[in-house]
Amino acid sequence: MAISVLDMSVSVDGFVADVNDYLGGEDGERLHAWADSRDPSRPVKQFEDEWNAAGAILAGRRTAELMDHWGGSHGGLPIFVPSHRPPPPAVRWGYPLVTYVSDGIESAMSQAKTAAGDKNVQVRGGNVAQRALEAGVLDEIQVHQVPVLLGSGRRLFDILPGLTELEIRDVIDTPEATHIRYAVRR
């Protein structure tokens, strides 16, 4: 059975992007510098294998639009976007693997899990993750905590419905980031 996993890089002060939606630093990619796969000593391969083994993507509308819906497929995976507004024209006519779901986060996650089969659903975006936590449909959180303070921007968990207990499943510590995987306790 599919599980849903939020997988995001985050600064120590809790930001996933700066105020201009860049991932920090002069090149706009500071929060993803840890994932430089040219260095075989980094644990990138393990995470890439996990991302590539996913069966579907659940993405927030803002994230999906910023990424141009990954060109219509996230490595060939179907993308589900919960939204109360209709999809933009490019999505309606040119991206058959992108599905906008208007009847709530629960329905969007259910459709993503069905499409994923026995593979995981990768969750993309802070707001959609917050809504999934609130609805009780987010199973795991994996953060790649990067040793940098952005000071401002967009926080990963800005508005939460209340206390959410997590259980640490795995920790991989590297000089570039500390990778922590949590199970969401229900």
Description:
With 186 residues, the protein is α/β, with parallel strands linked by helices. The chain has five helices and ten strands. The longest helix is centred in the middle third of the chain and has 12 residues. It is globular and about 40 Å long. The model has no long low-confidence stretch (mean pLDDT 90).
Which keywords apply here?
eight-stranded mixed β-sheet; two-stranded antiparallel ribbon; alpha/beta; about 190 residues; globular; about 25% helix
Briefly, what is this?
This protein has 186 residues and is of the alpha/beta class. The protein is 23% helix and 27% strand. The strands form two sheets. Strands 5-4-3-6-1-7-10-9 form an eight-stranded mixed β-sheet.
What is the fold's blueprint, element by element?
Elements: E1 4-11, E2 15-17, H1 44-52, E3 56-59, H2 61-66, E4 79-82, H3 89-94, E5 98-101, H4 105-116, E6 121-124, H5 126-135, E7 140-146, E8 154-155, E9 166-173, E10 178-184
Parallel strand pairs: 1-6, 1-7, 3-4, 3-6, 4-5
Antiparallel strand pairs: 2-8, 7-10, 9-10
Low-confidence sequence ranges: none
**If you average the pLDDT, what whole number results?**
90
The counted number of beta strands is 10
Share in β-strands: 25-35%
**Alpha carbon gyration radius:** 16 Å
Category from helices, strands and their pairing: alpha/beta
- Largest sheet composition: 8 strands, mixed
Q: For the largest sheet, list the strands in their spatial order.
A: 5-4-3-6-1-7-10-9
Q: How many helices?
A: 5
Characterize the overall form.
globular
- The N- and C-terminal alpha carbons lie at a distance of 17 Å
Order of helices and strands: EEHEHEHEHEHEEEE
Helix content: 10-25%
